[in-house]
Specification:
mainly alpha
Length: 107
C-alpha cells in the first residue's frame, strides 16, 4: 500500500504544481513547460544541487527537500508520517499559491 500511496501523493504534488503554473501565464503551452520544469526540479533538482555541496549537513538538508527522497521511502512500502506530511504540505502550498494568484488576477 505504501507504493500506491506514494504514487498518489506524488501525483497530487505534480497536479498542484501544474495548477499553480497555469495561473502564472495566460498561454497553456508556456504553463505546461513551467509546470514540467518546476516539477522536475522538485523531483530531481534538489538532489542534484545537494550533490554539489561537500558539507554533509547541507547535503542532507537539501536532499530532504527533494520529492525523490520522500517518494523513494514510500516506494519501499513504508508510510512514514514525515514523508506523508511533506507531500501534504507541498501540495497545500502550491494550492495556496494557486488561489493567491487567482485572487490577485480577479482584483
Amino acid at each position: 500500500w505504501g507504493s500506491l500511496t506514494g504514487l498518489f501523493l506524488l501525483a497530487a504534488c505534480f497536479a498542484a504544481t501544474g495548477l499553480w503554473a497555469s495561473t502564472l501565464v495566460d498561454n497553456a503551452f508556456t504553463a505546461f513547460f513551467i509546470a514540467i520544469f518546476v516539477g522536475l526540479f522538485q523531483y530531481y533538482g534538489w538532489a542534484q544541487v545537494a550533490a554539489l555541496i561537500p558539507d554533509f549537513f547541507w547535503y542532507s538538508q537539501l536532499n530532504y527537500v527533494a520529492l525523490q527522497h520522500h517518494y523513494s521511502i514510500l516506494g519501499k512500502g513504508v508510510i512514514p508520517f514525515n514523508s506523508a506530511l511533506y507531500f501534504a504540505i507541498h501540495t497545500l502550498l502550491f494550492l495556496y499559491l494557486t488561489f493567491y494568484n487567482l485572487q490577485k488576477r480577479t482584483q
